[in-house]
Amino acid sequence: MSLGGLAIAIGMLVDGSVDEGSLTPQVLRLPDISLDNSVRVEMDAQRALLEFPEVLSIVSKIGRSEIAVEPMEPNESDAIVTLKPRDQWTSARD
Fold this sequence. Notes:
Layout: H1 3-11, E1 13-17, E2 22-26, H2 35-50, E3 55-62, E4 77-83
Antiparallel strand pairs: 1-2, 2-4, 3-4
């Protein structure tokens, strides 16, 4: 397993409600990660999630603005994974 894969496996925390039709996974990285590597890890996480047929789309942001209004650290990402309607799910029940 690559270092990126390990980071995804360890750092992915799923928070959200399937009843709302979306998930909000959070990928944590080491604090000293470069922006290029951070983007690569995020893309790896997105590709892994897109393998599930229930996933419709994913949009992410990495880090925070200079005037932060949220508790996100610069080495964290925040994604919104939109799921297909439940009647279209083929590999999950809940």
